Structure formats: structure tokens, C-alpha cells
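TEACHING EXERCISE
Course module: macromolecular assemblies
Task: Read the component lines below, then compare them to the predicted structure of the full complex.
Student: A.B.
Group: 4
Components provided:
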Amino acid sequence: MKNLKITILIVLILCTYQNFAQQTPAPEQKTGISIEGAVAHLGNGEVIENSLIMFENGKLTFVGSANARIARTGTVIDAKGKHVYPGFIATCTSLGLIEVDAVRATNDKAEIGDITPHVRSLIAYNAESRVVESMRPNGVLLGQVSPKGGTISGTSSVMQFDAWNWEDAAVKVDDGIHLNWPESFKQGRWWLGEDRAYKPNKDYPEETAKIENFLKSAKAYSKGKETKNNQAYGATQGLFQGTQKLYVYADGEKEILDAVTALKNIGVKHIVLVGGYDAHKITEFLKQHQVSVLVRAPHNLPKHEDDDYDLPYRLPKILSDAGLLVAIQNIDAMNFQNRNLPFYAGQIAQQGMSPEKALEMITSNPAKILGIDQTYGTLEVGKSATLFISEGDALDMRTNRLTKAFIDGRDISLETHQTQLWKRYMGKYEGK
Amino acid sequence: MKMRFFALAIMWCSVSLFAQEYFPKNDGVKAEDLNYTALTNAKIYVTPTKVIDNATLLIHKGKVVEVGKSVNLPQNTVSIDLNGKFIYPSFIDVYSDFGIEQPKRASGGRRTAQYEPSREGFYWNDHIMPENKAIGVFKYDDKKAEELRKAGFGTVNTHIHDGIARGTGALIALNGKGSDADRILDDKSAQYFSLKRSVLKSQSYPSSLMGSLALLRQMYFDADWYAKGNIETKDRSLESLNANKNLVQIFEAGDKNHVLRAHKIGKTFNIPYVILTGGNEYENITDIKATNAKLIVPINFPKAYDVSNPFQAQFISLKDMRLWNQAPSNPKVLEENEITFSLTLHDLKSPGEFKDKLATAIEYGLSKATALKALTTVPAAILGKSEEIGTLQNGSQANFLITSGDIFDKGTVLFENWVQGQQHIINDKELKDIRGNYELSAGGNNYTLSISGEPGKPKAEIKEGEDKRSSSLSYDNSWVALTFHNKEGDKIYRMSGKVNPDSDDISGRLILPNGSETTFTAKKTSSFSEKPKNNKQDKTPVVQPVTYPNVGYGYASRPKQETILFKNATVWTSEEAGILEATDVLINNGKISKIGKNLSTRGATVIDATGKHLTAGIIDEHSHIALLSVNESGQNSTAEVKMEDVVDSEHIGIYRNLAGGVTSAQLLHGSANPIGGRSAIIKLKWGASADEMIYDNSPKFIKFALGENVKQSNWSSFSRFPQSRMGVEQMFINYFQRAKEYDLKKKSGQAYRVDEEMETLAEILNGERFISCHSYVQSEINMLIKVAEKFDFTINTFTHILEGYKLADKMKEHGVGASTFSDWWAYKYEVNDAIPYNAAIMQSQGVTVALNSDDAEMSRRLNQEAAKTVKYGGMTELEAWKMVTINPAKLLHLDDKVGSIKEGKDADIVLWSHNPLSVYSKAEKTLIEGAVYFDLEKDKQQREAIKAEKAKLINLMLEEKNKGKATQAPKKSEKEEFHCDSL
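Instructor-supplied answer key:
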């Protein structure tokens, strides 16, 4: 009987360990915290060499020099020689919507149907995802979670990465709608035996007209007196009122020009371009229409054989130098790669952009684009204490080593399924 | 109904002019025509080099009797005076599908994979069909024959274009008046092969190019074994293959590098293949020439792209633009290099295109003499039929063309195409050329009439004063019919008249609009003269120079070894010496010749490396760049296939990898099968040929795989063994046991059937070949170690090995190395426990660890991947750097040559802007064996050059379009970027 109990206990522990490994979310901040002596990277381009950062009740109460003669609140963390950053923000991710790419049962990132703005990522978000948890030790603490697939994929929300459930996790609910703009030049359906080559897409005008017609109807719907509910139309109203952004996925020059012109004409208030491979050819146009860009992460191959080998590395810099508001997404990579977000910024700095400017592309810029900049994205008094301490430069993989991380002032765990396995097996070898 | 059939049968017989003597005749009396035919007063090309003016060609019973200036004509000769016209031997196409309905892929969706053959009593693989006979399915196609004759062809060699071994062809004379009894010159003219699987058969193997090549090799081994009487069962395929081995062996290859691939097989088995090419041999003419193979060359030069829409034009690669620009020069380049080739209609939409394409080839520098040879004597010689066809020497088939002049001139008219002594009229040679300007009087008015166009198809223009009148003209059988409208366009004047051979004027009947009849006369005032073409004719076409490779970023010449002194660098040796500050490194003769301080600069190019870092080139243990295919998934074991067969030396991934500091890579087979194919280990010598990239005396490797991919878990496949990890073990044991038995038999000196798969596995057992095994979870890793130990060998490398950290101790004990990803996981179930600390843990337990890419993007920044081990697991920078240099070199048994900066090693070196592990670091120069293959400065120039060349070619293409020439829609060719599981 006793043995059975032990067995059950072991089984339970193992199950817990194997399947419900998410770290326990941290409790709300109860005592104040002061981080002293670190190099603070504020996320807005500024750096404070010997900094003092204090926060209480989840809010930053002081951001300044450690030389300031001011009382340190609560627990003081000596961070001399270390670096402090605002939590990094990933955009357009499928985090929490898919766990294991090859296992269909874990995939909730796309719905069938071509135009499904009403499907919401929010409620499918798995707060206990191991992949989400693995973001944190690299400093990625927030992210936009968006549906994929179809033409109008659905509605995204912005989440923080330490939560009991999706309601806890939500930072901004239903922030935007995601639209895959059709391609005017399309690859052959090689899986059906067609040539792999890209050729002009004859259906392009039809495909774009379909989108325009839908949005026009959706807009008219709000003005009608009909009470009959149309979920798809209803879901897009924020686009015309300016409370939601339209994330338009397009890479080609023609596609971008077509999309922005058509969507502005229809009355979509805020457009964010996602992808934008050719955006560098039309930066003036994009500025004129106040389109910000979520650019493809630099760790991607050039799209065309003759393109500069480093075009993907440089593209974010080119767009930023031209005066556009730019942040980074990595929709072309697998989910887990979102933890490499800081190194994408590092790669851009490699191309000659100042590291602080590159940092903005994963902090203040995405916060502005997602519309959470009142609270997140920079280290400024009054904003959320969502930040971390790294032993060194967090944009460089050698020195991105987190010792502490906070979301809304909560002292979150930096352990993960992966660190646990690491410790467990090192323990095996070291006889612990 | 019956009657009709009977009537047809009679007609059929009656057209056969050389009726077989023993055939009964019931529709009349038997009669034989034994007259001779003489064509006199002609310029006769007896052969392309023997031309006789004012000569006579005497033929009898379909053959040439005599040709010459003074030929004795027998009494019963019918003479035809050619008045100075030209006679050529008619053309021959060695690579035709004439009269054979070509197999088409069965429609319908993809079925489950079929691993077994569908036939009995034949070779085990359905795509090997040497027993096929073209003659068995041949059916003379009158319409096609006419088209071919119009294009100048008199004989074609046809076969069934399907499968890898395709059986025999048939040589057919395009005699429209005889019967098959006359036309079939040879019903077993050649034996055919290709690299393409049958479109009719569904057997899975081979699914890849390297599989096709391996299958061909094994087929020959098996045929030999069969011929020696060692196989007791019946194999009609091998019997046919052996029976036909003395015929001409023709191989459809295509692309220039496929030509080399085909030739390599031919060389192995001592078969001098005649090879059908793809028309881009000029890109690698040196290697093509070195094959010494006779070639069959298509002239389907690509059309210009329609680049009028700039959004679309940007999708076209420089490579594709160049192909349009350069391909027409291919025949010229072949000629310059003295390569024996024949031209073929193959790949052209219709024979009608041939004339224009050939004219283009000549415009681009192909000589007329070589063109004629390539269409007559060379194809005849290829087929071993020089005595019968291709010339007009005595005794040859009377297959010849009568033309108005030089056959390759644009304005020349082909009058007649005689096949087997039978006249086929294409254009009426007696037709008087009525082109010219006339004064026309009709119905009391005077008009000017000008007739232009082709002599057989003239066009008319009628003017009254300066007013043009709409008109039409037909000219047939020496009769002219001409109509024109009145000024208002509502009334019509009709004229018809017979052309008088003795007069230039034309006259005849005129019917007025009111129906009354009178006469017209047209008095010739001047003859027709071709409008002088605006000096376009003289303009030699602009052909862009070929680069190495002939794609964007290709070099004008291949990089050469240099003597270079790097001064004052921070040198990461990847050796005991660690990191040396302010150190000089001298590169000479492709080797690292000296490392030290203040080295002498004599004769060396000095590069100031102050503040910069110098390292050995990165080695990627697991790469799939530069390959034409990656998985042979048609069987669960494919040890017989070689990645060396499918290296793609023109893949842009090579250049991009150089830009990331990579100098060597193991190109692995994919992970579709427990036993995969043999690796190609290459140096990324951008611009060299595939064979030059492969290491000399390369260590021998093979890919194995475990887990989800080999049991096909992630796609709908339930028929192939193994479907579980349990089955994987049993499969390995089975194959190794068989290989052991094979090897024992071989070593015992007994006769044995050569089996490439078993040879390869025996090499593993004998410690001559090393396994790099795709692996994820610990159970299967442990299993393979135990299987290897059972068969007394060591696994060399576990690649991926994401759960290696769970059994690093066992790995160490076995002596296997690890090549892993830095931080990949979560993409499939078996990587659930993959952790980025893996490399550090394994290394801490004494396992040799490398970091690899398996990805054309990640391989460009393996330095950063190495740096991640500093973050995950706290590796030192020194050890981290070894994971992409000396450690993979050790795993690949190349550490005596590369992987570190050490005197005497190959100068495979990278100069970095910063600490190479830093995310801020860029490769500035990448050298292989002392030659600079990547340089940031050169790269800048290349970008400009690509831009300029594209602009130039786009302008040329626009000109082409404006000239009204046909264009094709823009497209972007796409090479697949491979990973392990790409099928």
C-alpha cells in the first residue's frame, strides 16, 4: 500500500514534470525593488551608465543615475557591471497557439475559410506553453499573438509571458486584424506537380477585389440599421473607428502600393505593413501614408538569387534610416525562434546601426506599433516595470545571460523545461 | 463499309512503288518501273565538304547511282534540268519521337507509394525497360512526316521517350510514297537511356536524380552478372539490355552537368554514350570537351522575357536573362571546341521552328559547313549508317533536298525533298518568280502594281496614283488571280491570267464590277529587290561573357591562389595555442606557411588586420546547400546513392555561405531512410565544377537516420517498413548481416554479384566508411550504438542528436562524436526534450561536439550559433569556436588538412571584422587554399555589375519585343532549399 502510494506520487510528480512544466507564475509585486549600478538601456535610445531603477506595485518609480541622492525602495539589487533592458516585445507570433509544429493536435494557429476576422487568438492562447516559457530567459517578455492562414486571418491580442491563463496574460485584447495581401507574382503549386517557378498571378485583381469588397461591406454594415448580426463584419469595425490596426502582410512593391492605396481609400485608419521586403523602394510613400513596418527578421535568406546576400540583415536599418517606424517580426521562422529576437536586433547593429537604435526595434517601436507604448517598451517612470537584468549586452548571444526578469514588477522565474533538463542531466553526470 | 476498307487497302498497296516481288497482285497486271532519274545542272553537296558545280545526280530504285560532272546516263533515264539549283543530302534527326505516341502521365491524385515492381519476368525496377521496342509501337504519321520534310529532314531515328532504360529505337525514312516496307531502315537502330523515371510507372524508386544514377549503375552490374549465367530466373529486361549492347547507346541527359553525369556512368562501364544535351554546354565547355562524347544538341533557344512591366521583370534572375542571351551561341562554341555534334529538332514545339532557330545559330557564329555536317554526316555516323544516309555518294539512299540557293540563307526556298528516290514537292520549282513592279491597265484606267513577298506566296499592292486600293492576290499553278476595289471600296474588279514562261508581262481576263468581261495587261517595269535590311544583318549579336559559375555573383575568372600576409591580427588558432594577439599569418601556395610576429612581406600582398580577427574557415558538418536533390525516398535503404553525383556547383547558397565564413561542408543525404546515401564533402570553391569542389581522397561518409522521418510519422504513409523504432533496429541488423555475408563471399575470392549498396555497407563494417546519423531521442541513439558494437564498428557522428545530453556518457564510451543544433526544438514531437544546453553538456563529458546548420540560412552565421553555447551552458569562447572549426574537421576526418590555423594546413581562412563569436562580427574575406572566394569589396563590385548587366539585357529584350519577336512571360526559377526532410 505504501509502495503504491509512493508509486502514485512518483507518477504524479513525473506527469507534472513532463506535461505541466510551466513555471508557477510570479505573485504580484508586494515590496519595492531597486536595481543599482547597471547600464540601463531605456529602449528609447538613451543609456544610463551607472543607473538606478526603482519600481513599486508594478510601476517604475525612478529611472535615473545611481549617483542620485535618493532613498532606495525595498530590496536593492546590486547590478554593477550588468545591463538592464525593458522586456523585449515580439510581434505577429503564434506563441501559445501551436506547441509542436509537426503535431497537428497542438496547432490552433489557423482557421479554415478565407475571410475570418472574427476568430480571435486571445482565447486559444496557451498560457502554459513551454515554448512561451522559453522566451523569458532571453528577455522576450511580451508578444503579439496572431492567427495565421487564409486571407483575413483573424484578430490578434498582445500578451505577457507569465500568466495563469489567457485573461491574466492579456495586455491588449483584440488589438488588430491580420490580412494576407495576395501576391501578383506567385510560385507554382509544386506539391501538385507544377513548376516551382514564380509566374504572374492572373487571379490577382480578383483576389484583391474580394478583400476590398469585404471591407467596403463591413464599413457599410456599421452604418446600417439592420440588427442582424454579422460576425465577420462586426469584428472589423475597429479598423474604421481607429481602435484597431490592420496588419497587412505584403512584400512586393506593387502589392504594398496596391494594398495601402486601396485600404486607405476604404477608410482603414491605421495600417501596419508586415514583411515589406520591397518597402525600401517606396519609403516616401509609406511615410506619407504613416505606415509603420514590421519587417522580416534579418535571419532570413534573400528572396531573389541576385539580391545582396546581406539585404535581409540591412533591410530594417534601411527602413529606419528613411524615417519609418520599424519593428521586427519573424513570421517566416518557427515559433521557438522568437527567443532569438534580441539577436535579430544585434544582427542589425552589425550592419552599422547603433545598438540602442537597434534595440528600439524590439522595445519601444513594437510597443508603439502595437499601441501599448503608454505602458511598455521603455524604462520610464510611470510605465510598467517589465524589464530584466542581463550579465552583459543582451543583443549579443555570448552575453545575453539573464539573472532577473520582471513583468509588471512581478519577479518571474527564469527556469524552463529546458533549464530543468539541463540541471537534471548535469546532476546525473556530476553525481548530484 | 467493307468495300471502303478494301478500296483503302488497294490505294495503300498501289502507292508502294517498289512492290515486293513475291507479293501477289490482283488489281491489275504486275509491272516494274526500272527507269533511271537524273537531276542535271545542279550544284551538288555530295558531302558537306565535297561540292560539285554543274553536276548530275543519277538515281535508280531509291539509291544514288552516280554523281558528278559527267555522268553516263542510261538510255532509260528521265532527266530533270535543275538550272543551277542546289542539291543537299537531306537532314537526319537522331533524337526523334516520330510515329510513336509518347506516354503521358496518368491523371488522378497521388496514390500511396508503390515500392514493389508491377511486372513479372523483368528487371526489379519498372523504370528499367530495355525490352521496349520502338518498332513495336511505330505507326507512320503522314502529317508529321510532311512537316519534317518541309523542315528538310529525310530520315529520323525514333524511340519511346519514357523511363530510365528505354529500349531500342528505329530508323525511319520519311518516304511519303512508299510503305513501311521501304521506310524502315533499321528496326533496332540504337539503345536509349535517360535520367528520368517513367511517367507510366508508379514504382517509388528512384525518386531522385542520384537514385536514377545509382539504378543505372546497378543495372549494368546486374546485366553483367546475368550475362555470365549466374541468375537462374528469367529477366527479359537484362536479356534485352545485353542483346542490344553493341548498338549505338544514346543517353538523354539535358543540362551540361547531366551530360557529365551520363558520361561518368558510360566511363565506368566502358560505354561511349552519344549524349543528348540541353543546349547550355557553353557554360562548361572544357569539361564537356574532355568527355570526348558525341553530342546531340537541341536548338530551342529561349524566347526573350517580356520585361515591359518592371514589377514583373525584377523577378527574372540574371542567370535566366543570360541564358536567353547566350544560348544561341552554343552551337558556335561547340564548333570552336571541335566537339562532334549533331543537331536535333528535339525540344522544339514544331519542326517549323527549326529554320529560324538554325538561322539564329548561324547568325551567332555557327559555320554553315558545320551546320550541314551536324544535320547530315554526323548523325549518320552516330547511327553507324554513313554508307546509307547523310551523303549523296554512290550507293546511298537517294535522300536529298533541292533548293533555290544556299540552304542556310534566309531567302532560300526549299523546292523538293526526295526520300528514297521519291519526289516530295514542297514548293513548285518551276514556278516563275512574278515579283516586281508592273504597270497595270484595267478597265481603261492605269494603276501601279507591285508584287513582293515569297516567290510562292506573293503579295500585291495596287495604287492609282498615290491612292492605295485594297487588293488580294493568289498565285497557283502558274495562274494569277488578282482582285481590287474601286476608290469608294464598294465595287470589285477581278482578274485572272496565266503567267507566260517566256514573258515577264501578265495579261488575261478582267471582270468588271458590273459583270462585263474584258482584258487586262500588266507590264513589268522593274524586278523585285529585297529591301536592304537596316544594317542589322551586319551587327554581330551581343553575347555576354560567361562567368564562373554562370549566374549572378559568378566571377569573370576562377579565383587563383595568392601569396598573402595578414599583419597584426588576433588569430583564433583552434589549436592548443589558443588565441594569439597581434600575430602575422603568411599564406603561400594554398597553405598556411607561417604564423608569427613581424613576418617578412616579400612577394606577398599585405593585408593589415589590425583590430581584426583571423580564423580557420567554418566547417558545416550537416548541410544540404548546393544539391540538386536530397532524399532518395523510394526505398528504406539507399546506400547505393551518392550525393557526389548531384552537387550543384552553381547554387547561390555557396556564395552566401562564403559570405558567412564557411569554407567546407558535408552535403548529406536527407533523413527519409534509415540507411541514406553517401555524402559529398566539399570546399565551397565558388566558380569551380562540382568535381573540383569535392575533396580529393575525400573521407567516405554515409547518412543514417532514426526516428520520425524514417518511420514516416509526419505524413500519411503506412506501407513502408519500418513504421516504429523497433523496426528500425531490425532493419539495421538485417542489412549489416547481409553486408557481412556479402563481404565474406567477396573476400573469399568467389564470384559475386556486385551490389553497390552492399559494397557501401561493407565499407562501414571494414572501418572504411563513416556514419553520420540523424538522431533525436536517446533510446534510438543507444540502440544504434549497440547495433554497431554488435557488428564491431563505431558510429562516427550522431548529427542533430538533440537528446545527446541524456547519454553523453554512453556516447563518450562508444567514441562517437556529436554534431548538433545550437537551439532548435519544438518543431516535432521527438524534439520535445531538445535543449540548447545540449552542446555544452556533451562537450563537458568529453564528446567531440560540432554545431551544424541543416539550413541554407543558418549556415551563413554558424559563428553566431557557436556563440550561443557561451550563453547556454557557459562554454568558453575558445571551446565555442572549436565547435564550428576543428571539431567538425575532426568529425569529418579532415583535421589534418583544415579546421585550424596551423602551419602546413590548407589556407582556408576567414578575416572577421570583430571577435568572430560576436553578433556584430562580419566576414570580410574568405579564402580557400589561398584563393580569395569572398571579399566584401569584391562583393560590392559584383552588386554593381549585376545591376548593370541586368539593365543591359533588359534593354536588349525590350528591343527584341519592339521588333515584334515572340516573348515569354517573366518568371522566377526557383531552386528548392533543402533540409533533412525535404522529399
